[in-house]
Amino acid sequence: MIAVHSSPVVPHLSTLKVPAVENVTPVFETTMDKLLKEVQELFEQQLRVDSLLALSKKLQTELRERLQSSPQCMLPSHNYTLPNGQEHGTYLALEVGGSTLRVALVDLDGRSSSRQPLRIRRIVTSTIDSKVRDLRGVAFFDWIAGKVGEMLLADREARDYTQLKEPLPMGIAWSFPIDQTSIRSGNIIGMGKGFHCSIYKGHDLGDLITQACQRANLNIRLDAIVNDSSAAVLSRAYIDPLTRLAVILGTGINAAIHLPISSLHDSKFGRREFPSTPATHVLVNTELSMFGKRALPTTRWDDYLNAHHILPDYQPMEYLLAGGYLGEIVRLIIAEATETAGLFDSRLPLTLSTPYTLDTHTLAAIEADTYPSLSPSCKLFREKYLLPVPPTPAEMSFIRQVILSVSRRSQGYFAAAIHALSSLLHESDHTTLANGLDHISIGCDGSVINKYPGYMEKSQELLDQLARLDRDRRKRVVLESAGESAVLGAGVAVAMANASD
To answer: Which pLDDT does position 154 carry in this prediction?
Structure first.
C-alpha cells in the first residue's frame, strides 16, 4: 500500500483585512476556542457507539456488493487454506515495497514448539532510493538478486543451503499491483511513479525474479507470492489458530479475510485452476482503503484534501484514517486557524505551508505529552518547524486538542471497518466459526495500529462496545499485534506451498 500525495496549496478560506493603522488589534473571523469547538463537533459527532454501528452497517452493505462485482476490491488470492502450525523449515523471504527491500531468513519451528514458533533469524534492509528506481529493465531485479546474495553470504547455514542440489525455497511479499495467476506466478500490472522497469509490465514476476537469481548464480526457487495483508493473516494464523483476518494500518490501510469461496461471485476467479484438493475457502484481499465513500462522513478539511489529491475519491477510507493523511488533516486545520483565529499571530510558518509536512510521528509525540505546560511539545514544534518563537501553551493546547479529535475519529472509523469485516465473516462462515472458536483474532501490523499511543487499545474498547450494542450474537474480535508480518507471512506462504507439493 503506497499513499500517493499531490501538492495542493494551503487553503485560504478568507482574506484578512486588517486596517493599516498602528496599534490596532486585528479582528479575526473566529477565536481558537470557537474553532476548536467546531473541530471537536465535526470530528467526534459520529463517534457515539450507535453512530459507529450505523457506519458499520453501511460498510457491510458495500462489502457484500463488492464481493459480487468489483474488479478492484475483494480479490481472491491463491491462498486457500490457513497454516496448521505444523509447517517447519528455514525459508528465504523478501518484502519489496515502494521505498524498502527486506531480505530475511525465516525459521518455522511449529506452533507447539517451546522456542519461538516463528522468527526471523537474519534480516537485511536496503533502501530503494531514486538510483534504484531509475534502474532500467531487468537491472532492478538483478539488484534484488544481488541483495539476496549478500544476505546469504553473511549467514553460514544459508551458505550451506545454497550448496545443496535442491534450491532454497523463497517467498515474496510484493507490494505493487499484480495479476496473480498462481501461488508462484503473477503478471506485473505496474510499480507506480518513479520506477523505470515498467517495460516489464505484463511479464511474470516469478520468471523475472527466478532469472535474476540464476544470473547471480543463486540456488533459489520462488515458491510463493503474497501481498502484505495476506501475509499478515498467514503470519498470525501460524501462531494463533483463531485468526481469520488481518489489517495493515500504517501510511495506508488494507485488510485480508478468509472467506468461503461460495461467498464470492464466480467471475472473481476468472478461468483459474483450483488446487487438486477441493478448496472451500480463500484468502481475500479486500483493498479496504477503497471503501467508505458512501458511508464515512467528512469535514471541509477532508473534502479539501480529497479534491486536491492526485487520485480524488480513489481511497476514501485511507484519506480519512491512515497515517499518510492524519498529519495533513491537522495541518489544514492549523492553516485555517492561523488565518481566521490568529494562531501563531496569523503567520503560518513556511515549513508548514507545504502539504504533508506534518507527519504522524509528530502527532504521536504531541498526543503523548502529558505535561500541563506541554513544554516538550512546544520545544519539538519550534525546532522541527523552525518557529521564530515557541508556541504559547494556549496555542500548543489548541494543536494537541485538534490532534486528539483527528486521531479519535481515525480510531472510530477503524473500529467500524473492523466490525463490518468481522460481521461479514460471521454471516458468511457461521458454521465454521460456531465450531470451537471462543473469539476471532485479528492480526495487526503497521506503524499506526502498533505504535501510535493508545491506538490499538482504544480501538479494542470501541470494538467491545460495538459488540455489546449489536443485537446479533457474535464472537468477540480481538486485535493482536502481528509485527514483521510481511517477511514472516512470506516465509509461512512458501512453507505451505512446499507442504502441499
So the answer is: 81
